[in-house]
Design brief:
The protein is α/β, with parallel strands linked by helices and 318 residues long. It contains 9 helices and 8 strands. The chain has a domain of 210 residues: Alpha/Beta hydrolase fold, catalytic domain (Rossmann fold). 43% of the residues lie in helices and 12% in strands. A hairpin with a 2-residue loop joins strand 7 and strand 8.
Length: 318
Amino acid sequence: MISSIFLVVLGFGAVALLVTGALAPIETLSWWAGWTESEIADEDAPVPVQENADRLYIVYLSGVASISGRFLIPREKAFIKNLKARFPKAKVISDVFPYSPSGLPLLESPRLFDRLWRWVQYLKLEGRTALLAILINMRNIFQVMISADHRYGPIFNQGAAKVIEGALTRAGYARGSGAPVVIIGYSGGAQIAIGASTFLRSRLNAPIDVISIGGVMGSDPGLQFIRRLDHIVGERDTVERFGAAMYPERWKAMAHSDWNAAKRHGRVVLHRMRNMAHAGVKGYFGRVKVDGVSNNDRTLDEVAAILAPDAPQATPPA
């Protein structure tokens, strides 16, 4: 009986995935046309008191396993907690859902398959099956592909920029203050961080830096608008390598692409991490300690070293 129910749900999930993939551009175009009924940012909400213009603002965009900005996996939560401790004077924002141009989490209505995503999230949290959780990854991968697409990308990325700007504003960011903004994008979040930077740079009138943690990204025009991209890559990260091969404009032969032009101009800096994979206990946020240091700590140290010129650091709690 249980296996029959599982097969029915799996079949429904597969159909939902196919429909979601086919409709991925439609979600972007419907947002552009103003058909989206609800957005995560409330345009009429009161603007908070704007803070010191010299304060560093850090926005974290989760990977493709994300279902809502309010739900991070424990490894990511630990990373964010220690990042805040390391940079107490910075404002760290981690509640942005980057895989929708409206910022609407998968758990929220109105969505065609919102009940399915809630059920999949329940199973994922219960640890009962990893198979259905793959549906979340695949759905978000489609959105990353839309962000990197030269046809739909500018529309999607403009929406993502609006969502990020809304989160910054709620955190006290003053548009036009020139306060630096750093966007940390894990996995597919790096592509959306770069894509959104195209619009954030002009809207905020402030320098935008992007830190990619195992980023899967294309040769996006946003590379022309960021001050610098620090790309953290694990030696055993096959996902990142596959992502790089998937976009021909990142190949060395495409010398005049945005990616290769940014590399020539020194705006792309690679940081290679030994014995580090993309996800799991051996991934960037793994918390299993080897010789007293976890990958989570190593990734934090690398990010802190990148941010050090822009913000004072404090020793994180033991």
